[in-house]
Specification:
heterodimer; A: eight-stranded mixed β-sheet; globular; B: mainly alpha; AhpD-like; peroxiredoxin activity (chain B)
Amino acid sequence: MAESIMPQLKKAAKKSLKARENELAYTSKQMEVLNGGLFADGELPLFKDKIAEIGHSPLRPKALEILQINVGYMCNQVCEHCHVDAGPDRKEIMTRETMEQCLEVIRNTGAHTLDLTGGAPEMNPNFRWFVEEASKAGIQDFIVRSNLTIIRANKKYHDLPEFFKKHNVHVVSSMPHYTRGKTDKQRGDGVFDKSIEALQQLNTVGYGIPGSDLRLDLVYNPSGAFLPSDQAAMERDFKKALKEDFNIEFHNLFAITNLPISRFLDYLIASDNYEDYMYSLVEAYNPAAVENVMCTNTISVSWDGWLYDCDFNQMLGLKVASKVKHIKDYNEEVLNDRNIVISQHCYGCTAGAGSSCQGTVA
Amino acid sequence: MANSYYDPADLRKFGNITEWSEELGNKFFDYYGKVFEEGALSAREKSLIALAVAHVVKCPYCIDAYTKDGLQRGITKEEMMEAVHAGAAIESGATLVHGVQMMNKYNKLSM
């Protein structure tokens, strides 16, 4: 008993599951967990049966709005909850050739938003060239998901805020909490202070200031086995604390639910929280969120050019169920006529107010 | 039967109390839901009050529920512990203020 209430002294992992040869690095093992246990026993309903109740099985896409491109899994951080299993040891990096194929698509897509993610996308050696070229395509909203610490990680990244500004990039950054302790526990020692410095630097060049066209939004992921609460209330708390303590401003906070895959799944199982977490997700299932789950308006492209319904399916190796499976064969019309691939992790996007890379959806 | 009075999994079954008394159960849950909505007090403040009361009434289900609720709302552990102390202080104060009754009785009975 006494042991269980002692502070956890476990050090954050420094390596990806893949480098640690953890069995959950294999997508087949993750799928086995997601389809087994509670769901195989019939104790909890399968996601496909749940959405069938409201006539959404098979789940079908609406018009494409967001093209999300993952330019590589390499990252300067090894966050405990990372669904990408990103880290410094990951070598999967999008080549210039694949980027060229992506650019061809970006120039012709009907999507209004381009969303670059990783890993730390900035660590791709062709990142700046790619941003320069992509920004010429005239996409309405050009997002780069930056983890903030990368800006402070090395001298060669210090000018990123100016670079983003020059290309009118919409910066979306992770910030698990407005206190040091919670942030560092999830993301590693020193991450909070570096993130604060980076946010101040972004504010200095004009990002996040009320009324500014230079959009700076923050992403909040719960740092543990619980769901995010009301996004508007969290935004209010974040704004007040960051302004009072550090004079930092930002536009919107996106509250994103952690999906039970990859390192977060490993954490759930290791901390004996997996079953309770799945119960929480299923109990919080909101049919209204199904209407707008992001896979209905997004295509996710992996570092090696394969196409997925979302970044989570990408990490589970679940390619789109379409004749067109690779960026080199991209055809929006053909792609949009597909059934979306689902499994039990999808409950993460339909819990409560729903969750997407753009925050709540219901 | 379970060999313990409390089973964490029973918390998930709380809603089942309506099965044996639908009207009263529903009235309770409607009331409960309404109480914790944003009002003159924020839902966040009410969550901390609930956590303090959970400790005072020593309800393990409520402690689990409102620790999780606090985490979801971004409430810090320092805030949670202060709330528990506020509850504990009132509870111990309620015991100690009866010391006056003891003193009164003692004095009345003593020559």
